[in-house]
Amino acid sequence: MTEAFTDSEFNFISTQSPRLSHMDQDDWLVKNAEHHRDFGKAINENSSRAAKTLLISGPVAANSLVLSRNARDIDPLQISGLSRLQLHRAKSILSNCLRVRSRDIEQVCIWGNPSQTVYPDIRQATFHGKSAFKHVTREWFEEEFVPDV
């Protein structure tokens, strides 16, 4: 791992520990935390101080936090996590409601961790230049959209 991060300016981490059949959620989270702790230490010891790191390995928010806590000499603002599953789900559900194609939906944002804390934000979302938020009811948003995402 040392070689991979030596003097790196950009780090892309797309690996996670698999959740084996005998593992419960807690076991899996611990295993991933150990994995990303090691990534953080290796980045801290070998990467450029200006290195930007992008994680796309789930659970991305937890893994990003663990990595950043172990890359102590790297500014946490240089470490980002990307989760597309909830984004694609949100765009699909919203596009069905608006009767447009998913690719016509723009500016959807997902906040939180992939769990009960995830929050799909469509306040800035648009379709064909129009506000998506203004074209849905509060009831649909709160009772269907948020829980389904």
Structure description:
Helices cover 42% and strands 15% of the residues. With 149 residues, the chain is an alpha/beta fold. It folds into two domains: 2-81, 3-Layer(aba) Sandwich (Rossmann fold); 85-148, Alpha-Beta Complex (L-2-Hydroxyisocaproate Dehydrogenase, Chain A, domain 2), CATH 3.90.110. The strands form three sheets. The chain has a three-stranded parallel sheet, with helices on one face. A three-stranded antiparallel sheet has the order 4-7-8. Helix 2 (25-46) runs parallel beside helix 3.
Integer tally of domains:
2
Strand order of the largest sheet: 1-2-3
Percent of residues in beta strands: 15-25%
Specify the CATH class of the largest domain: Alpha Beta
CATH-defined fold name of the largest domain: Rossmann fold
Q: Count all strands and give the number.
A: 8
Pick out the low-confidence regions: none
Average pLDDT level: 91
- Shape-level CATH architecture of the largest domain: 3-Layer(aba) Sandwich
CATH superfamily of the largest domain: NAD(P)-binding Rossmann-like Domain
First CA to last CA: what distance? 36 Å
**Per the principal axes of the C-alpha atoms, what is the gross shape?**
elongated
* Percent helix: 40-55%
Rg of Cα set: 18 Å
**Largest sheet properties:** 3 strands, parallel
String of helices and strands:
HEHEHEHEEEEEH
Count of alpha/pi helices? 5
**Structural class label:** alpha/beta
